[in-house]
Amino acid sequence: MKPTARKLPSRAQVQQAAARQRLASRVTTPMHRPSVDGRLLLVLGLALSGGLFFALSQVRSVVEGPGLASAQSPQEIARAVLGQSARVATTADLQTVSVHYDISGWSLTRSLIRTSFQSNVIHLVPVMFARTPQTERIEVVADNIFDTIQGREVRQPALSVIFTRPTAAKVPWPSVSNGEIARMADKAWVSPTIGWQ
Q1: Are 122 and 173 within 8 A, CB to CB?
Q2: What is the reported pTM?
Q3: What is the rounded CA–CA span in Å between residue 123 and residue 71?
Q4: d(CA 89, CA 191)
Q5: Which of 10, 41, 63, 85 is deepest in the core (most CB within 10 A)?
Q6: Tens digit of pLDDT for each residue in 67-109?
Q7: What is the distance in angstroms between the CA of the first residue and the CA of the last residue of the chain?
Q8: DSSP readout, the chain?
Q9: Sign of the alpha-carbon torsion through 195, 191, 94, 105
Q10: How far is the C-alpha of 73 from the C-alpha of 93, rounded, in Å?
Q11: Sequence-distant (≥ 6) Cβ neighbours of residue 103 within 8 angstroms
């Protein structure tokens, strides 16, 4: 047999082969990860957060339930529903009742702040109107702790609603949902950092 001469690759071919090899070494093989449907994670997350809120609301109602049954004055009613942080101001004739309370204990998320506030309004307003017949207007204000641009913490109103007796009489309190409170109130306000949605 006759030996054959091998043709050497050109410089350009060598550079191309080297570039291909560098590119191939950068591409990693994907690791095998178990496939989890994103919808399943969403449902689990909502169920856990909803369950946590329900559990906390039940604990609160068990602890403060009997106090509400015997509460008659606006101060007693507000403290039975909202806790000891409730501060009540009224006109001398009880025509207007203004309730401020601290919601910062529920400020884990913006959604939890809104839901807690709306639930508290549902529990407070109809009882207050039923037990104080002279009251014509109820304002509920939830205060939260906010960080300022300067890095300080300040307590400011986060959400508020105003109900008059005629408006409250139209609300189906036993069946109303939290999300409907803002549009059913005479006036509703929320801090832009929280928002209604």
Answers
A1: yes
A2: 0.64
A3: 13
A4: 22
A5: 85
A6: 788 888 899 999 999 888 889 999 989 899 999 998 887 667 7
A7: 86
A8: -PPPPPPPPPHHHHHHHHHHHHHHHHSPPPPP-----HHHHHHHHHHHHHHHHHHHHHHHHHHHHHHHHH--SHHHHHHHHH-TT-EEEE-TTSSEEEEEEE-GGGTTSHHHHHHHHHHHHHHHHHHHHHH-TT--EEEEEEEEEEE-TTS-EEEEEEEEEEEEHHHHHHS-TTT--GGGHHHHSSEEEE-TTT---
A9: positive
A10: 13
A11: 113, 116, 117, 142, 143, 144, 158, 159
Q: Where are the domains of the chain?
A: 58-190
Chain position carrying tokens 């989890």 = 36
Comparing CA positions, the residue from 57, 91, 64 lying closest to residue 78 is 64
The residue written with tokens 């049954």 in the block is 69
**Residue located via tokens 């939890």:** 112
Instruction: Retrieve residue 32's tokens.
Output: 């095998």
Q: What is the pLDDT of residues 103-148, one digit of tens each?
A: 887 667 778 888 889 999 999 999 999 999 999 999 999 988 887 8
* CB atoms near residue 167 (< 10 Å): 15
C-alpha closest to that of 181 among 168, 193, 194, 192: 168
The amino acid at residue 89 is A
Q: Which residue has the tokens 């994907």?
A: 30
